[in-house]
Model the fold of this input.
Amino acid sequence: ECGNNCREVTKFEQLRALWLNNNPVVKNCDSQLENRVLQGLPKLEIYNSRCTAKFGAWALGFCGGVYGKDNPGSILEGDYQLESVSSLDLSDRCIHNLIIKAFSPVGLPSLSHLNIRGNPLEQNSVAVLLEVLKEFPCLQSLEVDIPGPLGESAIDILESLPKLSELNGVNASKILDTGKHVIDSVLQPLLPEWTAEEPVTDRIISAMWLYLMTYRLADEEKIDETSVWYVMDELGSALRHNDEPNFRVAPFLFMPEGNLASAISFSILWPTQNVQKGDECTRDFLFGIGEEKQRSARLSAWFHTSQNFFYKEYEKHCQKLQSKSLISPSVQSSTTRSIHTTRSTHHADGSPLRVYTDLPHVEEFLTRSEFVIISEPKDADIVWTSTQVDEDMKKAAGITDQQYINQFPFEACLVMKHHLAETVHKAYGSPEWLQPSYNLETHLSQLIGDYYVRKRDGLDNLWILKPWNMARTIDTTVTDNLSSIIRHMETGPKICQKYIEHPALFNGKKFDLRYIVLVRSINPLEIFLSNVFWVRLANNQYSLDKHSFFEYETHFTVMNYRGRFSHKNTPEFVTEFEQEHQVKWSEIHLQVRTMIQSVFEAAAAVHPDMHSLKSRAIYGVDVMLDTSFQPKLLEVTDCPDCTRACKYDTEALVGGEIKGRDFFNDVFGCLFLNETTHVSPL
Done:
């Protein structure tokens, strides 16, 4: 049947254009139909709206409005009249080569506007294309993908084509003044999309990010923690975006009783330019945000932006990560001298080491005779505090450089989430144990590229957003919506990581593991893993249903501060996990140890300035397992909450019972007395 239809079509040898889009005949034919048609119609220049390899003057005339079904032109080659064409729209014509005889200043002497968006043009170099376009005497307006066939920079294009007065709908002088490299003034708005099967609630959840507004509340109880998302009324929600708006909108809280409990919220709209009756009211969706804060990329939350640009940014990011390799720092075990051997002369009598602490568990459970708790930090040998010890605090508290402190300089490279990812990327590139991670303040374009690639390839696109330096999952979000990801930047700096959508489960529930790492020295690297670790369990059965993303007790495991807390004894967990999954925990534990060692080796190599002779510290390392039981690094925490370690007795994987009340005795013994009770060197 296809052969017969093809023979019928190819009888029309003079055909210049043919459309078979959505024709029932095409659905029953194989992929060879196009080849048969093109071979049988040697003069065909347009097939299904795309230019063929034989496109020439007729196709240019069709795209320029000279020819159409009512004016098909003559079959004589010399009859093509392109001299009058001033505007030529070649967008999305699948053109691979634009350097043809018909496309020239001689054939198109009046051409003033040209649109070549959506064409690969891979057979032409940037330099050759720019040279050809430069020869058109009247060309003043150009539309082209950036990055694309003319390069990656709007400024470079304008410098190569100085006659242009407009590029992608934007005045050339404005582009040069602002220094914007990616320009597009005709962005098409994103519209809500859904399938017939989606319930109304899911449709609303997906669409709401195009309309939501936000502000943050701070009071004495929650400093800068509470984000409020809201939708304006019909008028406010109908305001469209404009880079040069004539109105501004801002939230306003009226508190008649002077407190937040009595607050009534409004959105205030006021003009910023003179407006006339009939003018459209517009606002800037990204007021105060310029290119230095990734304005063009952030517009992807509301508009269709250049996917090609983001593909390239992601590709460059991947290439950069693949080029990384680490020279491991020197690792030394159990060689740091005991603090007793380095004590100043007035402690030569062997009196207890004086410890100042503001942590109740240290004060209660550090009971060894070698240490004594005191109340003044300036008199301590060891300052063990949850407060950041900076120069101002040292001055205020009388702390000197001769005292030991439970913090390392520049430890932010580990304990702040975006710095941790950056440290690992610099050391190893993209190791298997770190999920793809992006600092949205600097790498939004790369994240968008990754998102688009996954969407194109039909891969999972579930992500988790975490504030740089918040604990207890505050302002943490799980979503597969790109607009949601971008909009959450408005509530503070975030790191965006690929969500572990298929974690190992325990009785159908999600869990993670908290390990305690003791650091005696950075150079040489001297680290230990406490034999005490614990499991943190979600309360609900794990689900990837969209509604579950809003259920804290399904997707999060920290129940110390919210949700129903239930402790699971570690030995019991290990035994039951081995039985449920038919695995050996010792093999998993070995992989976890290796990963943790790699993390601290990365910090030591990338940030040697962490080293300090007067620092000793413990860190919490949170780990999750995927369905292949491969460990994944979640985060590193300074001065971790060790309530469970102190409260519950447990058993080491190899060895006997570990009393909770001895946890800090063992920690201080390792860090300050060179002991290794209930710890293992890494």
